[in-house]
DNA sequence: GCAGGGTGTCGAAATATTAGACAAAAAGAA
DNA sequence: TTCTTTTTGTCTAATATTTCGACACCCTGC
């Protein structure tokens, strides 16, 4: 109930229906006609989910446009969950959409209740996987730090630890010394040099 | 050309055809009738890819068995790439399979060349994402270690660093001492206690 | 064989750490 | 506020560690 949703569908009637349905389920629901309008929306990067129709331009029914936009939307940093919706979907398009990172794929006509459920699930899944990717980046950083630590002198490592423990003790040197397992005076000596 | 492939299909003719086709493309190709036979294969965890048919038991055409096995195979540590193949696939099953972690979804009849291409691509993609997930796990571990380091005694931190530097020096104590910025004898003393 | 580098060990001088003590400052509780 | 507890800064003397130079020994490669 606290999520922001963006609906992208070229059919005005569908947009209106979806917005009416989903307005009660999300904190904020915006509906636009074409993905290229995203740039014109203030705060466009803050959506939790996008409900993306595959068929803009009534002529192009092969979903190429939709897949193109899906890919662009998913290549942004911290992309929102994207649920694709289409009337002309076949297995191949569905698989392509999922491979491009869509969280779900729905065919029209849709079931209201399941649509809401799928949107929420998509948001949850997206949050988890996004978290995974950030974790991967963090791992790379930590590993880098770990490997750089190898080049450090014993004194440097000592002083780093001393400083972080003092920090974690809020500057209380007595407590820090105790936690470090050294005499208080030793800690003083270490800080003096 | 250096990958191990497992084919799971209940149709003996399909198994034979696939094996014939793929034998030249992979280092090792095994074909079994039922996923539950995996346990009986020596070194069953070492496959790079599995080509998984969705319909065992001719009666059950709703793919539930296939999805079940897909999920089980994908929940193993370091799972192989899995390409699902089915004659009865519809959009819903395809989306479910992709959500369960399949790398691709193919419908029979298949195109030989594209099948090989998809298998190879699946292996490559799987390797990448597996790396990401392992990185996530590593990150959790490293972060845990990082936060626990605060509780360590100065001597413990010293010894950890000493040991990892000695490790990185391949056991050469002189070099390790130099890198640690301490006298060689000091390093000996540290190791003695 | 032998030169070069690593290892294990020693002694003695230089340094660092420790426990204990004390006064002053700071922080908390009544 | 006053009283109490804790922390700080500093000192001394005993103890422990580190350092340096040196020596014999064992490998490894030339």
What is the strand tally of chain A? Answer: 5
**Helix-strand topology string of chain A:** EHEEHEHEHHHH
CATH C-level name of the largest domain in chain A: Alpha Beta
Largest sheet of chain A: 5 strands, parallel
Strand content of chain A: 5-15%
Could you give the order of strands across the largest sheet of chain A? Answer: 2-1-3-4-5
**Class based on secondary structure composition and strand pairing of chain A:** alpha/beta
The quaternary structure here is: homodimer
Q: Roughly what is the average pLDDT of chain A, rounded to an integer? A: 83
Which chains have the largest interface? A-B, 40 and 39 residues
Molecular structure report:
The structure is a homodimer of 193-residue chains. With 193 residues, the first copy, chain A, is of the alpha/beta class. Chain A folds into two domains: 2-136, Response regulator (Rossmann fold); 152-192, Arc Repressor Mutant, subunit A. The first copy, chain A, is 52% helix and 13% strand. Chain A has seven helices and five strands, in the order E-H-E-E-H-E-H-E-H-H-H-H. Chain A has helices spanning 12-22, 64-74, 91-99, 112-149, 154-168, 173-180, 184-192; strands at residues 4-8, 28-32, 49-53, 81-86, 104-107. Chain A has a five-stranded parallel β-sheet, sandwiched between helices. In chain A, helix 5 (154-168) packs across helix 6 and helix 6 crosses helix 7. The longest helix of chain A has 38 residues, at 112-149. Chain A is elongated. The termini of chain A are far apart. The model of chain A has no long low-confidence stretch (mean pLDDT 83). The interface between A and B is large, with 40 and 39 residues. Chain A binds a DNA duplex (30 and 30 nucleotides) through helix 6 and helix 7.
